[in-house]
Amino acid sequence: MIEVHHVTKYYGQVRALHDVSFAVKKGEIVGLLGPNGSGKTTLMRILTGYFPPTEGKVLVAGLDVETSSLEVRRRLGYLPENVVLYPDMTVQAFLWFCVRVKAHSSAERQQQVERVLHECAITHMAHRLIGTLSKGYRQRVGLAQALLCNPEILILDEPTIGLDPHQVIEMRELIKGLGGKTTVLLSSHILHEVGLTCHRVVIIDKGKILAEDTAEGLSARLQGATQTFVRATGPRQELLGAFRALTGVREVMAYEGNDGQQLGHSFVVTSPDQTIAREIAQIVVHHGWELHELRPITLGLEELFVRLTAEEPKAAA
Predict the structure, then answer these.
(1) Where are the alpha helices (DSSP H) in the chain?
(2) What CATH code would you report for 225-301?
(3) Mean pLDDT across the chain, nearest whole number?
(4) How many CB atoms sit inside 10 A of residue 191's CB?
(5) How far is the C-alpha of 98 from the C-alpha of 235, rounded, in Å?
(6) Which one of 12, 50, 114, 129 has the lowest number of neighbouring Cβ atoms within 10 Å?
(7) Where are the domains of the chain?
(8) Can you tell me the distance from the alpha carbon of 128 to that of 178, in angstroms, rounded to the nearest whole number?
(9) CB under 8 Å to 246, separation ≥6 — which residues?
(10) Domain 2-213 architecture
(11) What phi and psi, each to the nearest 5 degrees, are found at residue 16?
(12) Could you tell me the pTM of the whole model?
């Protein structure tokens, strides 16, 4: 649904984006993750037709953003980082103003406004002047206008900025609920939020894409191998020997004890083979042992981000 091909953007002599390429599939929720000033907002503005790239091409729903700008905007919902609202309008009047651009019939407009007021939990604020709202509620109004008429693609620039913890949770659940129905690209510098909300992560820094994968995939790439946690009941030494005998296993670390609340013995199996979990399960079942837990161990997004964005050490003089 979103295709970015070798996009570069200059502001005068300053290069904000350099040869950026990635894609977002239909129904995916993808996080564009990077520090402030990394180029996230510039990329969002190009995707929404706010301004063109200096070089490269962007396709949204198969349409070129430069040559089919109006048609692209009909298919998009956009929440910018700094939401532009009219302080002297009520929430409801503002949403009616926005929906007239997209919906044709009065009945459809009414239904759409009522729907987004409900989904964004601002029905009780419908008749309040926008200028009297808190920053969190203004952010919700901005999201409501982006959701009008069920856009195929939703572009969200820092959607949780200014929200309190309860509102962040509500926003997160709302965005996650759109997955599969709406294609969502959201930018954020908050790693925890991206990890909880998105199917896949695109990491950008200094205008360049550094990595693109699931959090688990990025972790495996940076570690150079897959680490799998396994907890099973059986003779400890036999379990250890069976795991070490699996093809391609580099290392098996055993935990010396449990906390008394869990059954079995715990191990961490390191292997470059992405399917090692299946082989572990098969070997446990084959021996008639009990498998209690089997899961990948990944680096946290924070550690991934630090490793990917760390500057190369300067060469010794």
Answers:
(1) 40-47, 69-75, 91-102, 106-119, 135-147, 165-178, 191-197, 215-223, 236-244, 276-286, 301-309
(2) 3.30.70.100
(3) 86
(4) 20
(5) 67
(6) 12
(7) 2-213, 225-301
(8) 27
(9) 269, 271, 276, 279, 280, 283
(10) 3-Layer(aba) Sandwich (3.40)
(11) -90, -35
(12) 0.70
